């Protein structure tokens, strides 16, 4: 479960929460959150569900079993549009890397029309 500790840390930092602040939201000591993030302790299934709900991700994402943070809409319906499965998690990347990713995506979008046909091959 090495991915769990990294994902928990990244999700916590994304919300600009300290270990102590996150612990307070779950009535846990800062040391418990620290042990989760160091991989010295593993939350039980109920706590995993609570953490997943708090961060609006799936338990599978938290455990590193999936790279899809949340394949569901706000009303709980599974998203069937495959384009939603390719959302990039750019958290933790330097600004320059995020800028390069965004530029590359814009470049690829320019290359294809709305039907997915390569504009250059017409």
TrEMBL record:
- Per its UniProt record, what PANTHER family does this chain match? HTH-TYPE TRANSCRIPTIONAL REGULATOR XRE (PTHR46558:SF11), TRACRIPTIONAL REGULATORY PROTEIN-RELATED-RELATED (PTHR46558)
Q: What's the protein here called?
A: Transcriptional regulator, contains XRE-family HTH domain
Q: Which InterPro entries match?
A: Cro/C1-type_HTH, Lambda_DNA-bd_dom_sf
Matches recorded under SUPFAM superfamilies:
lambda repressor-like DNA-binding domains
Keyword Magnesium applies: no
Is DNA-binding tagged as a keyword? Answer: yes
User: Where in this chain does the record put each HTH cro/C1-type domain?
Assistant: 8-62
